[in-house]
Amino acid sequence: MNDVSILIVEDEQRLADILKRQLEESGFTAEIAYDGYVGKQLAEKKNYDLIILDINLPLINGYDLCREIRRTNNRTPIIMLTAFGTSENKLAGFDAGADDYVVKPFDFRELLARVNVFLRRADYGREQSEKIRLADLEMDMKTKSVTRAGRKIDLTAKESLLLETFLRNKDKLLSREFIIERVWGIDFDPNTNIIDVYVNYLRKKIDRDFEPKLIHTKFGFGFYCSDREI
Ligand code: CA
Fold first, then answer.
1. What is the model's pLDDT at position 126?
2. Ligand 1 center to residue 12 CA distance, Å?
3. Per DSSP, which regions of the chain are E strands?
4. Which CATH number covers residue 144?
5. How far apart (Å, rounded) are the C-alpha atoms in residues 83 and 102?
6. CB neighbours of residue 171 within 10 Å
7. Do 167 and 119 belong to one domain?
8. How far does the centroid of ligand 1 lie from the alpha carbon of residue 79, in Å?
9. Boundary (domain end) residue, out of 126, 143, 166
10. Whole-model pTM?
11. Residues 197, 158 within the same domain
């Protein structure tokens, strides 16, 4: 994997510098932003392969920065560095659009293992960029045509966008707010049940007559799309 560039957004200078050195020793190119504002500028300007993002940052905190990045970029994996391993922290990170988290203090090998998982996945994603597959479901991202077990499935525009949102974030917990923002827009009332209505429409079309079920409800949080329970 040549020329893989990683952005580190971390205000603890010593930790950031050590991370950069260790990533470079592992063969990556790494850049540091010591605050959220510079992090935002770099993330918008350059096409990083992965972003390591601290939560407590000057100027823009990690959750807000993650949301900002996700407005325009759903592609770059983001690993959050959190000082607390509580489920509230993890959910807040996932809610903001992070792909994974590492709890401080961490062993660099643990972080490196996760970095490698995401880079492999991203690499696979590039090869398959035209189509996203999950079990026997396939969606062509150009034409938006969908098949399951080889059978063509007709979706309305909103159903299609909902499925695309699920597939582009497969195996990740998605909050109701996250889904509504992407499918219906930010001005939409998150308390509406429209999302449940559309998830039911989509389930009837892609899950009812098939196994395994791909759309799962996480009670009290939201939904996820996966061929297994997470
Ligand atoms: Ca910090």
1. 53
2. 6
3. 5-9, 29-33, 50-54, 78-82, 100-103, 131-134, 137-140, 146-148, 151-153, 174-175, 215-218, 222-225
4. 1.10.10.10
5. 9
6. 13
7. no
8. 14
9. 126
10. 0.56
11. yes
**Span 118-136, mean pLDDT?**
73
CA of 223 to the centre of ligand 1 (A): 30
Span of 16-20, 38-42, 53-57, 174-178 with lowest mean pLDDT:
174-178
The better pLDDT of the pair 71, 225 is held by 225
Instruction: Check: CB of residue 225 under 8 Å from CB of residue 217.
Output: no
157 alpha carbon – ligand 1 mean position (Å): 42
Question: Which is it for strands 100-103 and 78-82: parallel, antiparallel or unpaired?
Answer: parallel
**CATH code for the domain of 13:** 3.40.50.2300
54 C-alpha to center of ligand 1: Å?
A: 6
Task: Report the C-alpha gap between 52 and 38 in whole angstroms.
Answer: 14
Question: How far apart are the CA of 136 and the centre of ligand 1, in A?
Answer: 43
Residue 230 lies inside a defined structural domain of this protein: no
Q: How far is the CA of 124 from the centre of ligand 1 (A)?
A: 32
Q: Which two three-digit tokens encode residue 198?
A: 């559309």
Residue 52, beta-bridge partner list: 8, 79
Q: Omega into 77 within 30° of 0, i.e. cis?
A: no
Query: How far, in Å, from the CA of 10 to the mean position of ligand 1?
Result: 6
For the residues 206-220, what does the mean pLDDT come to?
A: 94
Alpha helix locations (H) across 169-220?
Answer: 176-183, 194-206
Residue 115 CB neighbours (<10 A): 23
